[in-house]
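Below sits the subject:

***
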Amino acid sequence: IDAPFGPVIPEDWAEQNDDAGSAYDLRQLEGHGNVFGDDEGPLTMDDRMDEPVKADWFMFQTSAQGVLGDRVRIEFTHALGDLDLMLYDEQENLLASSLSVSDSEQVSLDGLPAGTYYVQVNGFSGATNPGYRLTIDAPYSIRATDPYEANNSFGAAYDLRVLDGPGYVYTDLSIGPTGDEDWFQFTTTADGGSEDRVEILFAHERGDVDLELYEPGGRALRGSYGVGDRERVSLADLVPGTYFVRVYGFRGATNPSYTMEIDAPQAATPDDPTIAQDWAEQNDTRGDARDLRTLNGHGLVFPDLTMDDSADEPTKVDWFMFQTAADGVSGDQVRIDFTHALGDLDLVLFDSGGTPVASSMGVDDSETVSLDGLAAGTYYVAVLGYAGASNPAYTLTIDAPTTGDGIPRDRFESNDSFGEAANLRTLVGRGYQWDDLTVHQTGNDDWYQFTIAHGGAAADNVRIEFRHASGDLGLELYDSN
């Protein structure tokens, strides 16, 4: 929104927020890098004469306890006006302050429980300032489960099946809540070499995670307990067999996101295939279909798949299973992409009872079947090598039906009607911008209100930018009536 200009140091987009009762609500914040005063326009300590006490108030909520590195910070040019920073709890009790004479002020959120907090930015001795930036590095929330839960004990370890060779990657894993552990088991078919390993990668500042390897009897074999962003245990010199992986938070720490990589020993035989088995094997029958779990939304990509040329698999087929949470509509589909010249692949979709629903058997570099009109439920995908063909690489993409929860609510919800319009306050000048907004479900409208202090000019405007292919949006402007 480019609004009309006003005073020498104009009010910013957060006004009127001159006391705790009118604090600008930043809503619930999660994670680091929540910056206010850049894209949406600068924050100012304006020079209005009717504000002898120079103070800006903000309110925000956290969803987890603060840890080291969580903080509130303001940055400005001290020579243009000295600003100070205070943090209050929900009852407006002062928790921390920063009153230096530098170009920034900072207070920590370490140890503070989840809840509502107030930030006060003061102009020292009535000082003004034409521009400052507020950054809140909020605590990260923890997902209750990741895709492999519940695998919280040795006995409930998630079975990754037989792993043969390097390159197995498992993403979107998490440790949380406090006390959570993740257990996995896998089986090797060859002696471990110097490059074979299990490794986890994560942001240490979000929670210290450690890694251990166990034998089937429950005895710990090896562990990694560093203080960096990765932990690694070697599989060198281990005989073929089943092993268990334990991932846990040091002293009860949580971490919202980590990735596990396994480079397993590579089995070598005289009849070793030239096209290796992929991460989804063994999935050569409908009963062994690789479970992709419940899928919601478009762009769910499963790469690095192969139609291997193992001699013990005369019928070339890979099976996958997935669940949908909503009825299919136009645009929902299952697709495989590959190089046809390297091996012709076909695609068949089955319902939960094993009855074919749709198929695609072309001679191009892709095959696609639609999910339009199919009820929510369980479906099976069969990828076939035509006439026993193999193929060194294909990608499976599922554009699943999207439920109302598939697109997240944005920070201004609920603002679905004229009466619930999110108040953007008084806007003076150009460059106000709000990102990461969504129309999250059918029938959802987003309403906003703002106030201008001066008459509009030709260049003053309201604009929305979006990807039309993701959903067509319209824009209307109303007066206060």
Observations:
- The chain has a mean pLDDT of 89.
- The CA atoms of residues 274 and 402 lie 39 Å apart.
- The chain has three domains: 1-141+408-481, 142-268, 275-406.
- The chain is about 0% helix and 40% strand.
